[in-house]
Design brief:
The protein is mainly beta and 524 residues long. Helices cover 9% and strands 34% of the residues. The strands form 9 sheets. It has a 5-stranded mixed beta sheet. Strands 1-30-29-28 form a 4-stranded antiparallel beta sheet, with no helix packed on it. It is globular.
Length: 524
Amino acid sequence: MNLELLESFGNSYPDDADGVLDCNSMALTCAFNRHGSLLAVGSNDGRIAIWDIITRGICRFLQAHVHPVCSLSWSRNGFRLLSGSMDWTISVWDVLKGECVYKYRFPSPILRVQFHPIDPEVFLVCPMRLRPVLVKVDGYQKHITFDEEAGEQNIFASFDRLGKRIFSGNSKGKILVVDTESLETLTSFQVTTGSSATTGIKSIEFARKGSNFVVNSADRIIRVYDGDLVKSTEGKPQQLEPVQKLQDLVNRTQWKKCCFSGNAEFICAGSSRQHEIYIWDMAHGNLVKILHGQKGEHLLDVVWHPNRPIIASVASGVVSMWAQTHSENWSAYAPNFKELEENEEYDERESEFDIEDEDRSVEDKNEALVDDVEIDVVTCDPIKAYLDSDIEDEGDVLTFIPVTPEIEEPEDGFWAMTEEEVQILEKMRDDEKKKEEEAKKKVKVVDVVYEGHDIPDEPPELTTITRKGETKFVQKPPKSVPQKPPKDKLPPPPMEETLDIPDLNKSLSPYKEEREDKMETDDS
């Protein structure tokens, strides 16, 4: 299929619902791989379901975490999947084998994880109430710098399109740009609303094509900046004006998630109040479409397909798919095509379907002779729609996950296995189970260290609170186990103190005798 032609026909944004994906658990987040052929969905029970977009079926389940999965990220080649959870851990998965390769423990719940756009050995983590950290698979870790003068730590961080820089923002609206290798601050700028008021940064998303990036802030305004303009201000921080400002002036909607389309011509944003998705035209800043979900649903996440006009949104534990509505137009197959109400007889010309036209008297001198051409059906040429402008070689890529069909009841005459083949098959399955168990035992666990913060041995308890139809997860702080001092340094036992309590009967005896004498005199 020629993906380069998809942008030339009709609108390049979805306009109607196209079914749902239900994985039998409450979905919280989702992420497309680079080709858009697989969709990873994280659930509240800690599982990750990988869906095949073409067949709309689950091709792999990953038992990832103990607590809900809150963030997912694919590597560039699609062979690895990064998952962050509220159990304070991060896991790196081998998608083809379905095994956990590495595991990292943090002293705080995880808000966001992101693989490096090119290098699958590097990823970026944003923990809750802590500085973002750059982590390598081999255990190397380095924290992102923040503005020490303002005393504000960065609450969000993201790689740029090629991963050469890291953009981070804090709750006071300041965005720092640091170099990925040296982590030195290159430039910074302030996101302001009005004359001097500041606003907190909620998210930063980059387009797959071009240099634009979008900033979602707490003042309910979506700002689009030019990355080349930010690059030109390196070494001389100054105030930058956004290219576009997008907002809902009527309802004053607070935005939950923003992202670009695959061709960077549209921007979509999900409302945090209800299941509504707004789509703007990037060129003019016009609102072109609003996709309405069912009433009472709360949007949790929204992602745009990398190459097609398809949007996946997560609301009320289900993944909703949005796509274009296609109407059949038979006249598009040929210019002189006619729709017939009844069958008609067709008069064939004598030389209409001949290989060589024998009736032609004059030969065209400009007619080129078409020889037999050998077509190569083995070599796979890279698809330009998947490549970046700066990267021409894509390398080995995982596009689909092979699935073995299960036959419940074989039909009559179906090929039956002999006893020897059954034994060989059972032995192979036992060997695979042993390998899986050994792989689970060999998972390398790395602790990401923060000064002044301890890493608990067990994940903290998690409780759910439902208010106005919206479910939120609340974590209790981990219980710190006090360490017992050695026997040599035990404090001496406390001295037993005795209190002299007077005997009330003895102290009151003279008063009792006097009262009895008085009562006898009164009786007499």
